[in-house]
Write a structure and sequence with these properties.
alpha/beta; Alpha/beta knot; 44% helix
């Protein structure tokens, strides 16, 4: 399966960046192609609707053509790790070989972009920074692979 994570901004904290890189490497070892695409973050001094709109336009332009799209959204569905793994496994069983996860910036995604995605996923009811959301998503993608293969990591 080809996985793409399209997100706003880069991770500035070197520790978080190292953790993300570690999980990226782990996911690739399971035979997935994983691409991380970062778009420019809009300056926070501008009106919120302008920031969300411009960042969402940039994100939409980078979504992999023909991919099953997943918006990370606070109002999305929540899953346990085994349920998330099962959902990804089900997509693969349906012949879906490209999945694109979309992570908004500090203010989230535009309603139009979130609604255009096939699946809205919430990683937590708690608010996460967009950098932390990226790390949690990558860790859960790795964990899903261990669950689907029956490996012990998911305990």
């Amino acid at each position: 399966m080809e996985l793409t994570v399209v997100c706003v901004g880069r991770i500035r904290d070197p520790h978080l960046a190292a953790l993300c890189a570690d999980y990226q490497g782990r996911i690739v070892r399971y035979g997935h192609r994983l691409e991380l695409v970062e778009v420019k973050e809009e300056p926070g001094s501008r009106p919120a609707d302008l920031v969300i709109g411009r960042e969402s336009e940039r994100l939409a332009a980078k979504i992999t053509a023909g991919a099953w799209t997943v918006a990370l959204d606070l109002g999305g569905e929540q899953y346990s790790s085994p349920q998330f793994a099962s959902r990804l496994g089900s997509l693969a069983d349906q012949g879906i070989n490209r999945v694109c996860f979309v992570i908004g910036g500090a203010l989230g995604l535009s309603a139009a972009l979130a609604e255009s995605c096939r699946w809205k996923l919430s990683l937590s009811r708690m608010t996460l920074t967009h950098e932390m959301a990226r790390l949690v998503l990558l860790e859960q993608l790795y964990r899903a692979n261990t669950i689907l293969r029956g490996e012990p990591y998911h305990k």
